[in-house]
């Protein structure tokens, strides 16, 4: 053990923060898997209409989160081991990984903020395409397929229609909407557009909060890593 005094305190603080970072990676991995297999999003994103798959932007984002969680767990372990062993090489590698991860997180945050409505908008457009075919008064195979797609939307989100439905939709509403979505209170929105926006806004808030907490931890880890490296370099044993 080369470092003493305040440097030794920083060493154990860094170990503790890295352990928290490792746990955060596990949490992100778990949240990503939950988002991937969540019944609401899975039911909607597995839909097909005339051979066209529902937009998969959300699933791509989830797979990115899975990769980030796994990398964070590896980097957290590297930091813990480097701090305990007082290895400048491991701590330097850990610091480099942290800088890269932090830059990627900032870039992903900016991209996510700019495109925060993309996922819900894509699914709303997919819903509207099915809606237009389902209200077609002519009985066709396209109408039957679109009706099945709308039924899944309505059952999953407990909604009914777009909120400004025309007479054509009202004529087939009873067969497309589950009975439980019949408005009890006229002030309660049953619009599927609104339900889709609320669904993904809620999930993005969870992701954003987790990213903010991790970013703060990473900043402290980078500071402590630099201080510990300097202390190890200046220690008499080295």
TrEMBL record:
CDD domains with a match to the protein in the record: CD81_like_LEL (cd03151)
A Pfam family assignment: Tetraspanin
InterPro entries: Tetraspanin/Peripherin (IPR018499), Tetraspanin_animals (IPR000301), Tetraspanin_CS (IPR018503), Tetraspanin_EC2_sf (IPR008952)
TM stretches of this protein: 12-36, 56-78, 90-114, 204-232
Signal peptide boundaries: none
SUPFAM superfamilies named among the record's database cross-references: Tetraspanin
Location within or outside the cell: Membrane
UniProt keyword list: Disulfide bond, Membrane, Transmembrane, Transmembrane helix
Membrane topology: Multi-pass membrane protein
Family from the record: Belongs to the tetraspanin (TM4SF) family.
Protein name: Tetraspanin
Species assigned in the record: Carassius auratus
Upper lineage: Eukaryota, Metazoa, Chordata, Craniata, Vertebrata
Gene: cd81b
